[in-house]
Specification:
mainly alpha; Endonuclease III, domain 1; 12 helices; globular
Length: 244
């Protein structure tokens, strides 16, 4: 059973890490709900993911790995200008041309291979139908995505949530940093454990998970950076440690 470090003033267990007891679970649920309410009250609806089509969502989710979204936007604009942002066009596009078009996204040769793997799977197993790939039970669809070379849990969940309308929480670097600084997780927790915190504490609703993740992105960019800027943050009044 994994424990999460807590300061004595923030938990019910002052002698060390606070474990997954019923009291701990209740505290987690309360904290996650308070974070959401504070962020939503301050920022309002985020209208995220920034894409016009589901194809664009998937391509963006793959390209955003380890890079800023502004770089992804430049790469996607290149694909649009070349008129290849469709599954059939991407299928027929030579890998070298694809790599050059997505160069702004960084590690473009690696990402071209990953995007190519996704496109091949889409056509070979689902005849080019994203609806077919993402249809049905969420965990089954998730396993399909995770079987594709270069698609990890975060990318899979982003595709499922924003392109497939499945209620799965996307755990990104902002999520981990914010939770860690508010004593809700630590560096030892796996992706799946952090994801489960949200699935256990909140109603499994696509719109809620969509909005929550987007709010984390906003507060992460504005305040919860690698060097925290707590002044004026909607979460400033909650117990936290900006040094974590």
């Amino acid at each position: 059973m994994q424990c999460v470090g807590q300061p004595p003033s923030a938990g019910v267990h002052s002698g060390g890490p606070l474990c997954h007891t019923s009291l701990y679970d209740s505290s987690i649920k309360s904290s996650l709900r308070e974070i959401y309410n504070r962020l939503f009250h301050s920022y309002g609806p985020q209208h995220w993911w920034p894409a016009r089509t589901k194809t664009e969502v998937v391509v963006g989710a793959i390209l955003t790995q380890n890079t800023a979204w502004s770089n992804v936007e430049r790469a996607i604009q290149n694909l649009k200008r070349a008129k290849v942002l469709t599954w059939s066009a991407l299928r027929d596009l030579p890998a070298t041309e694809l790599a050059e078009l997505i160069r702004p996204s960084g590690t473009y040769e690696v990402k071209a291979k990953r995007l190519g793997s996704f496109v091949r799977y889409l056509w070979e197993d689902h005849n080019g139908s994203l609806r077919s790939m993402l249809n049905g039970d969420m965990e089954t669809a998730r396993e399909r995505l995770l079987s594709i070379h270069g698609i990890g849990p975060e990318t899979a969940d982003a595709i499922l949530l924003y392109a497939g309308n499945h209620p799965t929480f996307v755990v990104d670097a902002y999520t981990r940093r914010i939770l860690r600084r508010h004593y809700l997780c630590d560096h030892r927790m796996s992706y799946e454990k952090v994801r489960e915190l949200f699935h256990s504490a909140l109603s499994p609703k696509t719109r809620l998970f969509n909005e929550y993740h987007a709010l984390f992105v906003t507060v992460g960019k504005r305040h919860c950076r690698s060097r925290a800027r707590c002044l004026g943050c909607p979460l400033e009044g909650m117990v936290h440690d900006p040094a974590l």
